[in-house]
Amino acid sequence: MSLLSIGVSGLSTNQTALQVTGNNIANADVEGYSRQRAEIATRPEFFEGVGFIGSGAGVTDISRIVEGFLITQLQSDTAAFNNLSAYVSSIEEMDTLLADSFSGLSPALDSVFSDIEAGAQDPTSMPSRQLVLSDMEGLVERFNTLYQRLQRQQDSINQQVKAFSSQVSSLSEGIANLNVSITEEMARGKGQPNQLLDERDRLITQLSELVTVRTATEDNGAVSVFVGSGQALVLGGNYNELVTSNSTKNPGQLEINISGLGGTQQITSLINGGKLGGLVSYQKDTLPEIYNSLGRISLGIADSMNQQNKLGIDLEGNFGTDIFTDINTSALTQSRVIADTANTGSAALALSISDINQLTTSNYFIDFSGTGSTYQIVRESDKAVVSSGVIGAFPATINVDGFDLAITTSPNAGDKYYLNPTKTAAQDIALEITRPQEFAYASPIVTGASLGNTGTGLISGGTVLSVTGAAMADITTPVTFVFTSATSYNVINSASKAVISSGNAFVPNTVNTYTSPNAAYSVELKGAPALGDEFTVDYNVNGVSDNRNGVALGGLRLASGLDNGTLNFEDAYGRLLEELGAKTAQLRISRDASESLLMQSQKSRDGVSGVNLDEEAANLIKFEQAYNASARIITVAQQIFDTLLAAFR
């Protein structure tokens, strides 16, 4: 009977092993399936007088062949690759858009300045003026279109963030439900539920495609899942959800919150890895830079052209007006400040641009503490505190980084405001001029030298500095420079003959600058004038054919009016493209490297847990032969038993 028992145990054991092998073969192509193995152990021995004799073998467990480290590494590399993939996809879209010869800003900038330069050669030509007007309309449209494309990308990112957050919640629910089923099965003491364990690992890997997760296995077999800085997505059979809400600091952008029995917590800044992390990083690091770089260029062009055009005379003899909408209208200054929704005060803040040259491409925020009069302004790009102190009385104005922040009344302690000096400027720019005659190509002053001069003195054409307030009196007052010696001159009102200033020092053969009393203009006197030589500055009443202010308008193309005098408009846009292109290229390299690591991790996991069909085929033969051998043992046992019975007949 012992021999029969041993044979039967062999049949049962090898039949189970064959079933496990067959199951492996059937699931060879199933994603996430872990190879299984029948764990075979010998049965207890029995003393049979002469020694201990074995009683066969049995299957003690059906185990999964897995390596926890490899699964964790696969999930980590999955999160890293999907993070870079989502980032690259977004940044490539903007890199292509901004660098394109049709959709980018460079062609529009070049057309405007080239046609201003050409039009200044014939300042009375209506066709050339009309061409400049059309080009400026095209430039405004290009700025507006680029801003709209940025907004559309932001909307697309919002949709993805919302969809991915919903997927995270669904996967978390699935993992929690599997935890319940797994702990129930394991509590019965019948071994591990391999299929449920595989499914849970598969869901956690899918979750890693969306966000970096950390896991912890409990004693009862449940797995807890955490995101961010330790926020729980899954705790045993319970799970929390990711939900979205409108941003308090960036209208049109979504924040990510974790919501559950413990309440709701905003975790956008804590999200990393996976597709969600990639989108959050792009929104935080790259998208604001594009918005603000385009906005700063827009502000620079609008303000510099407005100021220059107002220093000239248009085709109808009037002083120039704004070409573009004033960059500091009441509506615009208020729109650049966003109050935090948690504020308890109602102070009104307005941000006006004071110096384009000092503007950065960063956003800012201001915090109030104490009684509401203590403040600090933080630049978000480098987290530097750029201004802080105590406001003595309200209303007050704080100047920092090229903008003025006007605060009308005292905020409450703890109030916070977000400051966006340049973000929406590409959307806000609009053309104010409607007729080509309004381009002020002529200078309001004209200079000259007396025909009777005997020296070698020269006077420049003059540079107009201001035409507002008291400066207008300087513009309309004709003056004569009369040299009383080779080294001095008087300034006389040409109409009234009144002396404006006398004994002005002059250094021969150098540049001597004279600025009018109210700083309306400056002229340069140089060379070696003789005693009695005269030079004049007159109001250019009928000088519509003059092109000097038109030349100055065209000269703004090369003026380094951005980034503390280091960049002109085209250079600033070129730097944006250069930085964006370099960042895109580097991220592509990182993404490709991350993909290679992911493939290696997948290969390593499959090398341990994947099904090798050659190995399984060999196992089929081995277990089949063992099964046949066990059957032969039973046959032999039966023959022995039959022989024994025959001996007693």
Largest sheet: 5 strands, antiparallel
What fraction, in percent, of the residue positions are helical?
40-55%
The order of strands across the largest sheet is 12-19-14-15-16
Strand content: 15-25%
Q: What structural class is derived from the secondary structure elements? A: alpha+beta
Radius of gyration, in Å, reads 41 Å
The average pLDDT value, as a whole number, equals: 93
Count of DSSP E strands? Answer: 28
> What is the helix tally?
13
Summary keywords:
single chain, 649 residues, alpha+beta, 5-stranded antiparallel β-sheet, elongated
Write the layout of secondary structure elements.
Blueprint: H1 2-26, E1 36-42, E2 46-47, E3 52-53, E4 57-64, H2 68-99, H3 106-120, H4 126-187, H5 194-208, E5 214-217, E6 223-227, E7 231-235, E8 238-239, E9 241-246, E10 254-260, E11 263-266, H6 274-285, H7 287-309, H8 330-335, E12 337-339, E13 349-353, E14 364-369, E15 374-379, E16 384-390, E17 396-400, E18 403-407, E19 416-419, H9 425-428, E20 445-449, E21 458-459, E22 463-464, H10 471-476, E23 479-485, E24 488-493, E25 499-505, E26 512-515, E27 521-526, E28 534-539, H11 548-555, H12 569-609, H13 613-647
Antiparallel strand pairs: 1-4, 2-3, 5-6, 6-7, 7-8, 9-10, 10-11, 12-19, 13-18, 14-15, 14-19, 15-16, 17-18, 20-28, 21-27, 22-27, 23-24, 23-28, 24-25, 26-27
Helix pairs in contact: 1-13, 2-5, 2-6, 2-12, 3-4, 3-11, 4-5, 4-6, 7-12
